[in-house]
Structures are given as C-alpha cells and as structure tokens.
Amino acid sequence: MMRVDLEPAYVIHTRPYRETSMIVYALTEQHGVVHMVSRGARKKGNNNLQPFTKMYLSWSGRGDLVTLTKIEHEHSRYTNNFRAQVQCFYLHELILKLIPKLSPAPELFDLYEYTLDSMINNPSDEYVLRNFEMRLLAIMGHPLQLRYDYINDEEVQDQLLYRYDPDFGPTKIKLKQAQWNVVTGRLLADLEEDNLTDDSLPQAKIFLRGIVKHYLQGKPLMTRRLLKVN
Predict the structure, then answer these.
(1) What does the alpha-carbon distance between residue 20 and residue 60 come to, in Å, rounded to a whole number?
(2) CB 215 within 8 A of CB 140
C-alpha cells in the first residue's frame, strides 16, 4: 500500500463521487497527477479543496485511485479576474489531458507554480501561456525541433517559409499557405531562443495551438469555449 504524507500539491479538478464524496485530481510535486477520493468532501461547510491554493496532501491506498487522508493549506493565489481564472483552468485542462497520471515530474510542478503566479499577477501577458505550452511539450517528451530543416539538415533561415511537422520538425517551402503549421524561419528562431516579441506572439499563438491540438488527439478544451484564451 502506498502512503504519502504532506506532499506539496495543487487541486486542478474535482467531481462528485457517490453521495457526499469527491474525486480530486491533484498535481503533486513528486508523484505527478494523482487521483484521490476525498470522503465527505461535499458535506455542507466543507470548502477545503479550492483551486490556485498550495496545499500539503496526505493519501494512502493502492492502484489508480487512492484515499485523501489529510489537507493542510499554505496560501491561496485565488483571483477574481475572470481572464486569469480561465487561463489557469486552461493549464489544468492541458495537464489533465496530456500528462498521464502518476507520472513523476517535479519540473511540471515548478512550471505550474511559476505560471500560476505569473498569470495571476499579469493575466494579459500572452508570453506566459506560450512559455507554458512550450515547456509542457518538452516535459511530455515532445520538445520542438526548431533549428534544422529535417529533410536536408540545413539550419533554419529567418527569411524563408517552413512547414512544421510535429513528429519531425520544419522543412522549407516556396509558397505561403494559410495553415497553422506554415511559419517563418524568424518565428522558429524566436521560439528556439525564447525571444518572442509583440510582433511574433500572434503567429506563435496559432502555431503552438496547432501543436497542442495535434497531441490532444481530438480531446476538446472546454476553456476555449468560455474565453478566447490568449
């Protein structure tokens, strides 16, 4: 039987379970995404499982669904800003739909915490989401190959156009096409160098959304129906 005591965690989703309990999906520091049963969590007055709040959770059990046994709160990053809330829930959806449960990734926990702080402090900063998407892809084991044309192994050139294949990388093309994966070499260089500008952010948004959609494999994102996420 697994027994974990007071591990740093954030609740990223909950749903009702039986009459008074709840299934809790928590992003934990050392164990990745863990699915837990919180018994009696829906009883009147129980409001311990809030989003955007750093907690220390204890649990025990076997298999994919364990039992939450203790909750301690550190501090809340809750915000009333609607855009910031939806963007944070966008992070939650990506984590739940792209990261297998019980996949240890301390760097994901650190990335989430950093991004949460950044978005709550400045919800209009589009770069924060683009950075999260890029780093999440790398944590998943799908870092973007942005530097070389995968067909001829030539270094990408700023002034040329490229079609990007998520499984291989970019290859140059001659004619501009209105597709999410047709981008300039300049954008690929900006992404590679972590140097997005106000001018390149709109193209980066379309491009990274396309990459994310590829790995979602048809799974919808509800947050995009609530708000046109940056």
Answers:
(1) 19
(2) yes
Q: Determine the Cα–Cα distance for residues 21 and 191; give it in Å rounded to an integer.
A: 44
Distance CA 192, CA 186 (A): 10
CA angle in degrees (0–180, nearest 5) for 66-72-74? 130
Distance of CA 147 to the CA centre of its chain: 24
Q: What's the CATH fold of domain 1-78?
A: OB fold (Dihydrolipoamide Acetyltransferase, E2P) (2.40.50)
Q: Rounded to whole angstroms, how far apart are CA atoms 53 and 41?
A: 16
Structure tokens at 153: 């192994």
Domain boundaries, the chain: 1-78
Residue 198, token pair as written in the block = 């106000």
Q: What is the pLDDT of residues 70-89, one digit of tens each?
A: 999 987 877 778 888 888 99
Tokens of 4: 């974990």
Model pTM above 0.85: yes
